[in-house]
Amino acid sequence: MTIGNRIKKYISEAYKTQTNFAQSTGVRVAVINRYVNDKALPGADVLIKFKKAGMSIDWLLDGSGTMYANNAVGQQLRKKIENEIEPEPDTPFDRIKVWIRENYSSLENFSLIMNTDHNELFDILYKNSIPGTEFINMMTRAGCNMSWISNGTGEQYADNPAGMLLQIRQGKTENSTMLLKYFEKNHINPNADIDAEKLTRLLKYAVNLRLEDIQNIIDQ
To answer: What contacts 24+ positions apart, CB below 8 Å, involve 13-16?
Structure first.
């Protein structure tokens, strides 16, 4: 994806039209159009304006991270986009978005914990991109029961470490004896108040564990 492609993608998602983006940045539409079509590259002064309008310059230049800048405007735009697009009620994507929000706070935090590309996830959930088996496997590792995603019935959480951890956080411990023993052996108290940083570390660890890994540690 070229710089022009990224500018076009950002404008389409965050500002809808080049006119809106031009009004926000103070850069003329004709100039923006040249950037979008890769006929010119924005200079340092324009990049500063783009960042003030919420665009991540790291993402613009090399595609790394999320497209939204880590400033007030960028974060407001990200939250607005994630919350404003509502699919048909009771669809699998609807359930995934609600599940991620309830268990991982936001799509960006979920992307961080799962070490995956935020923009690809956004396109799958909000732009109707077709997910592959990698996405399904990732959701399972994150603790989500894909059977529940498919039909809306049964338990929301997968029978794996991340699913158990998320259940314990919500006070559901009847199916999590193995993980509770693991936490006890490693002096982890998931029922205590856990700040965001500690929770991120726990989930990052859990999504890469298998149940047999936990059992082996318990049996040692």
So the answer is: 13/67, 13/81, 13/122, 14/54, 14/55, 14/67, 14/68, 14/77, 14/81, 15/53
